[in-house]
Amino acid sequence: MSPLSGTSARTGVLRGVTHAMAAAGGLAVAGIVVVTVADVVGRQIGLPVKGAYDLVRVLGAIAMGCALPMTKAVKGHIAIEYFFQKLGSRGRAVLDTAMRLVLLALFFLLAWQFVRQGGAFLESGEVTATLHMPMFWVPWLVALACLVTAGVTLWHLLHPGRSMIRPR
Questions:
Q1: Does the residue 163 lie in any domain?
Q2: Is 122 exposed, middle or buried (0-12, 13-18, 19+ CB in 10 A)?
Q3: Is 131 within the bounds of a domain?
């Protein structure tokens, strides 16, 4: 097996995890819609959804965290193209590489902090206000999303000018 086939397999795993997290984020957004509509309609007939705020809060964190890797993979982030295009090709390459290195460090730092926060939640027994649902796993899921996003950023560093996932 050549070294390149291992790289291709790792890229396939990274793509798969990125797609799975995007699907989880999409399901979380759908869940927010369902809970919100059910709560609004339920309040009109005297049957509000117990813990709607808790559910929407947790689903919102899941949606935002799980959207990070796909957003990075399809380069769906905000870019200031006007200033970027004023640079020469060498300047753009240097700036792009520097920014990706900064992002790589930032996402590793965020992942570490989210793992610590989840550990603190686990140790303290942090739960949601109404449903008393344990909260430790939410920062851990976001930490995983940050690690996957770091992996996507590293992929872009190692494959300049190529798209890992094309937007649909």
A1: no
A2: middle
A3: yes
Residues of the chain where predicted confidence (pLDDT) is lower than 70: 1-7, 78-80
* Residue 166 three-state SS: coil
The token duo for 149 is 């996003």
Residues in the chain, total: 168
Range of the domain at 96: 3-158
- Asked, for residue 18, whether it belongs to a domain, the answer is yes
Residue 164 lies in a domain: no
* pLDDT attached to residue 52: 97
Task: Count the domains in the chain.
Answer: 1
Contact 110, 166 (CB under 8 A): no
Phi-psi region of 77 (alpha: psi -120 to 50; beta: other; left: phi over 0): beta
Of 55, 65, 56, nearest in space to 25 by CA: 65
